[in-house]
Amino acid sequence: MSDEDGYFGESVAAHYDESAADRFTPEAVDPAVDLLTELAGTGRALEFGVGTGRIALPLAGRGVPVHGIDMSRAMTSRLSAKPGGDAVGVTIGDFATTRVPGTFTVAYLVFNTINNLTTQDAQVDCFRNAADHLEPGGCFVIEVGVPELRRLPPGQTAVPFRIGPTGWAFDTYDTATQAMSSNYVTLVDGRPEYEYYPFRYVWPSELDLMARLAGLRLRDRWEGWTRKPFTHESDGHVSVWEKPAD
Predict the structure, then answer these.
(1) 37: which residues sit within 8 A by CB, 6+ positions away?
(2) At residue 242, what are phi and psi to the nearest 5 degrees?
(3) In whole angstroms, what is the distance from residue 129 CA to residue 127 CA?
(4) Is 46 in contact with 110 (CB distance < 8 Å)?
(5) d(Cα 138, Cα 123) in Å, to the nearest integer?
(6) How far apart are CA 131 and CA 133, in angstroms?
(7) Contact of 180 with 173, CB cutoff 8 Å
(8) What are the strands of the beta sheet with 66-70, ordered from one edge?
(9) Minimal CA–CA distance to 216: which of 109, 103, 119, 132?
(10) How far apart are the C-alpha atoms of 230 and 224, rounded to whole Å?
(11) What DSSP designation does 245 have?
């Protein structure tokens, strides 16, 4: 791990867009940008964990002023180098606690980024930080998966999600602490290389309680950005909490 950039240092940033290529397609990006543009209205948007700008850049392209907070200089340098990158303001810091000037009509976290905060206290702090940045009536949006504990038989702690001739990947879960990790083993010139990323999984109801502690209330929850209903079988959700207008 890079001390400066956390787990998203130069070695990750160099191939991040390629490794997450399916998340950069119009089918993946446009519905998210549509919703965030709608919620931003005539105001500003704040992205926690802005990364290489997958959402921030097209959102700014819609005319929404966007600011991002991220710990990784390696990731945000890629954002700044892209066309339109100068339109997105960036502050380097921990998005759970870093404050930036001004207020926003929408703050958001995408692609499981809330799980990068590996303690419950940090996740609670993140909600408070979002609420502190929001204008009255503003919204905090999170996209995150539902923990896949239904895939774990008794005695098993790992769930594979990628198996191939050149590598494999699996998530591990500790149901006592809600700690999890994503693990990648890749064969490079016949030799295995290992990458490890720690997370803390969180339930929808737990996020709702964090929101209440921050003075926010649940407004909407869908299965994804296309706003399909969230159900018992949904493997993820996009949730919107609102800061009261009065």
Answers:
(1) 59, 62, 64
(2) -115, 140
(3) 5
(4) no
(5) 19
(6) 5
(7) yes
(8) 88-92, 66-70, 45-48, 104-109, 134-145, 236-242, 217-222
(9) 132
(10) 8
(11) -
- Residue corresponding to tokens 């160099």: 14
Angle at 28 between CA 26 and CA 31, to 5 degrees: 85
Written as tens digits, the pLDDT of the chain (246 aa) is 445 888 899 989 999 999 899 999 999 999 999 999 999 999 999 999 999 999 999 999 999 999 999 999 999 999 999 999 999 999 999 999 999 999 999 999 999 999 999 999 999 999 999 999 999 999 999 999 999 999 999 999 999 999 999 999 999 999 999 999 999 999 999 899 999 999 999 999 999 999 999 999 999 999 999 999 999 999 999 999 999 997
Q: In terms of DSSP H, where are the helices of 106-187?
A: 120-133
Q: Look at residue 3 in the predicted model and tell me its pLDDT.
A: 58
Q: pLDDT at position 245, please?
A: 93
Is residue 217 within 8 A of residue 241, CB to CB? The reply is yes
Residue 85 near residue 53, CB atoms below 8 Å: yes
Amino acid sitting at position 166: T
Give CA angle at 32 (29, 33), nearest 5°: 85
Residue carrying the six token digits 């709608």: 38
The residues, any chain, with a CB within 8 Å of residue 212's CB and separated by 6 or more, are none
Write the DSSP symbol of residue 246: -
Reading the block at residue 82, the tokens are 């892209």
Q: Where are the beta strands (DSSP E) in the chain?
A: 45-48, 66-70, 88-92, 104-109, 134-145, 158-164, 167-174, 179-188, 191-200, 217-222, 236-242
Neighbours of 38 (CB within 10 A): 10
